[in-house]
Amino acid sequence: MSWLREGDTVSFCSNAPASPTTELLPVDSADWDVGIQCLTDRHGDRIQNLSQLSDFKLFKLNPIGGRYVKGFGKAYQIDGGSLAGEGLSHLRDGHKKRA
Length: 99
What we know:
alpha+beta; single chain; two-stranded antiparallel sheet
């Protein structure tokens, strides 16, 4: 059983302004091969074993925005599909009191 389905949105933070969408990767796709290789590089050969099981699913998250907090006074809003910084804006307004 899979908890995520293609096209579902996922929220990692309750106050997140936008959520990524999910895409179920077909086993015979180039994205599958890249994803499995990345996971194997990070977690070792157990990924190769797991990916051979019939109930193993690989989802690609397509983020559309987020926040990067580097430290005090160093918070940034990130907009854009790649999150590579093309839509990076420094958050300067600081904390606000609740109404």
